[in-house]
Design goal:
The protein has 481 residues and is an alpha+beta fold. It has three domains: 2-219, no CATH class; 224-296; 304-453, 2-Layer Sandwich (Heat Shock Protein 90). The chain is 61% helix and 10% strand. It is built from 15 helices and eight strands. The chain has helices at residues 2-18, 23-55, 58-91, 98-108, 110-118, 130-150, 159-185, 195-211, 222-265, 269-296, 308-318, 342-360, 390-395, 413-423, 446-449, and strands at 304-307, 327-332, 336-340, 365-372, 376-383, 427-433, 437-445, 452-453. The chain has a five-stranded mixed sheet with strand order 2-4-5-7-6. A three-stranded antiparallel sheet has the order 1-3-8. Helix 2 runs antiparallel to helix 3 (58-91) and helix 12 (342-360) runs antiparallel to helix 14 (413-423).
């Protein structure tokens, strides 16, 4: 139980400190904290109190620790179901009115207040009145489980994070209900000792989530930090390279123009042709390095108010001439007024759309969709391109990684889009499978963007190449610009 106590309180502290504004995390942190108080009670009972008794110091410290043990035990029985149901209500994603957000927690306290005031007090054998508490605690947990399972992720890129939450939270809580309420109410005492296994499973799933898919928006972000670091290195490196090549290319152009004038004045057509080749090469060098620099320079946002739906529609409209036989469907509800750098976000979206069209190669279908969740606005770009395997998808956001040939393809389109979304406090996710295509999700937190919903003017759904179909697909981001 020592492990359970330390692990649960560490998890609770992490959740409470990571994002103090998140009601979901605060309430789930409450579940972990009160689960830890039960483990603390077991540690005091099984280790500290016998140790003090063996030292002959029970009279001086034992009574105080006994009261701490009693309070810890009782608070665990009552706190876990209460905070779990509050968490489930919040996590479900349906916002309560101001009155209900105050009234519901108070109403849910009523059975706890009754048990504290009108049932026998704590004893070592009967910490609480199981036969009474089971009638409200188990329904609290059962309803909470149903609410969590009813929340379905709206996008495939979020499904992994959702199931991490389910795996880390639901089995320990359900097992807690059985071992701490159901079986004791039937006369089977001290079954809580078996909670350790399921708590260990939950903590392991929580840690796994932090290092992989994230846990309710939290993540150690090893991969994200690696990408951010790579982008910073590229930014500084291309700045130095741009300065050096720009100066040398400028010298080549300057002296080339002088030689061109000399060749013209002396009527040397062969020399003039060679000099023209050199001048074209210097201009090409300047253009190429400038294009790289524009994609990798440190972004300075110039935020202003913009309608995200209109921005998505405008970006989709720009690619229509390039569609060929590709079918395009756009669903973008207008009215989401956001504070963002419209030019940067539009360019990021254009990069993603361009990659999708190149992957489709004039065939298949492309879908662009703007959706709103409780906390985020999500732009989804999905196509029926060739997709990527896991190794390619893992490297897709790395600067300069590309499997597409051509001198103009630097592999900076997706890293740039990722960089733009990170600057806005958002994220970019990829969901790709070979033969199934790729979906790209650009997520913008409502709080960060100060998003406000105005009156919507409608949606558009248009197509090119004669098709009016609404289709889903993935984008072949293994061929990036």
């Amino acid at each position: 139980m020592l492990f359970v106590w330390i692990a649960l309180w560490a998890v609770a502290a992490f959740m409470l400190l990571a994002d103090r504004r998140s009601a979901d995390l605060r309430r789930l942190g409450g579940v972990a904290f009160f689960g830890g108080t039960g483990a603390l009670a077991a540690v005091l009972d099984g280790r500290f109190l016998p140790y003090l008794d063996g030292l002959g110091r029970y009279e001086s410290w034992g009574r105080l620790l006994y009261h701490v043990q009693a309070a810890s035990s009782v608070s665990s029985y009552y706190g876990v179901p209460y905070f779990f149901l509050l968490f489930a209500i919040s996590y479900r994603g349906r916002a309560l009115s101001r009155r209900l957000s105050i009234a519901v927690p108070l109403l849910l306290l009523a059975p706890i207040v009754y048990c504290v005031l009108f049932t026998p007090g704590y004893t070592e054998r009967m910490p609480i009145s199981y036969t009474i508490a089971v009638w409200w605690a188990v329904p609290y947990i059962a309803v909470g489980v149903v609410l969590v399972l009813m929340r379905k992720p709206r996008h495939a890129a979020w499904s992994s994070g959702y199931w991490i939450v389910c795996l880390s939270v639901l089995p320990p809580v359900v097992f807690f209900a059985v071992m701490n309420f159901v079986l004791p109410s039937l006369g089977m005492m001290r079954m809580w000792v078996y909670n350790t296994w399921f708590v260990g499973l939950g903590v392991a799933a929580f840690v796994l989530g932090l290092f992989t898919y994230g846990f309710m928006g939290l993540s150690v972000l090893v991969e994200r930090r690696r990408l951010d670091s790579a982008m910073r290195v590229v930014t500084s490196g291309t700045a130095i390279l741009n300065h050096a090549i720009k100066n040398d290319a400028g010298k080549i152009k300057l002296f080339g123009e002088k030689m061109k004038a000399y060749a013209q004045s002396t009527s040397q057509p062969d020399l003039l042709e060679d000099i023209e080749t050199v001048l074209r090469a210097s201009s090409h060098m300047q253009e190429m390095i400038s294009r790289v620099h524009r994609r990798t320079e440190e972004l300075v946002l110039r935020p202003g108010e913009a309608d995200l739906g209109e921005l998505v529609k405008a970006a989709a409209a720009t690619v229509v001439p390039r569609l060929g036989r590709t079918r395009l469907a756009v669903e973008a509800e207008e009215g989401w007024r956001c504070r963002l750098d419209a030019a940067q976000v539009a360019e990021a979206l254009n990069n993603v759309l361009s990659n999708a069209i190149e992957a489709l190669n004039g065939e298949g279908a492309l879908t662009v969709r703007l959706a709103a969740t409780k906390r985020e606005l999500i732009v989804e770009v999905r196509d029926t391109g060739p997709g990527m395997d896991r190794a390619q998808a893992r490297r897709a956001l790395e600067p300069f990684y590309t499997t597409r040939g051509g001198a103009a393809n630097f592999g900076l389109g997706l890293p740039y889009a990722y960089h733009v979304m990170r600057k806005h406090g958002g994220s970019l996710h990829l969901d790709s499978r070979p033969g199934k295509g790729t979906a790209v999700y650009l997520s913008l937190p409502k709080k960060a963007a100060k998003a406000v919903k105005a009156a919507a003017t409608g949606k558009i759904g248009h197509s090119a190449a004669g098709g009016g179909e609404r289709v889903g697909a993935h984008q072949g981001m293994d061929r990036r610009g």
